[in-house]
Amino acid sequence: MRISIVLxxxxxxxxxxxxxxxxxxxxxxxxxxxxxxxxxxESKPSADELVVKVEPCNEAVCLQLRNHDPSNKSFEIFMVxxxxxxxFQCDLPGxxxxxxxxxxxxxNGFEASNSASRVLAFSMQGKIxxxxxxxxxxxxxxxxxxxxxxxxxxxxxxxGTKLSNDIPECLKLN
Length: 174
Fold this sequence. Notes:
This protein is of the alpha+beta class. 20% of the residues lie in helices and 33% in strands. The protein is built from three helices and eleven strands.
C-alpha cells in the first residue's frame, strides 16, 4: 500500500512537470533519437580521473553498478537515460543500505529515501532528470556480502509512464 501511495505521488508530480516542461520534453525526445556512443579517452587518465565505457543503450534507461569502494562500503549506480526520469525505485537485497546520496538525484532536486534493501527517489517539486548519462546515486551499505544485484527496478517517466530498463550485471564486493 505504501508503494502505491508513493507511485501515485510520482505520477501526480510528473504530470505537473509535464505541463511545465513540454519544451524540454521536445528537446529530450530529439536527443533520445540520437544513438548513444561509447566515451573514449585518447590519453591516459590521472589517478583522479575515471574512464567510463558506456555501452549503447537500447532501453529508456540502462544501468551499471560500479566503482565499489570497500574502505567506505559504497558503490555507484550509473545511468544512461534516453528519456527523462521522474522517479525510480529498486531493491539491493543483502547489503543493508545505509544511505543513497548524491549524483543526478541530488543535482536534480530529488528526494531519496531507503530501507535496508530498497531505494526510492522522486522530486516533490515535480522535477525530472533530463536525458543524459551520469552517476544516478552513490549507495552506502553496512553489511558485507560477496556481490550486490539490483532487483525490482522501476523507473517512472513524465506523466507517470513506466520506462523500460535493462537489468545491470551484479557487482562483486569481495
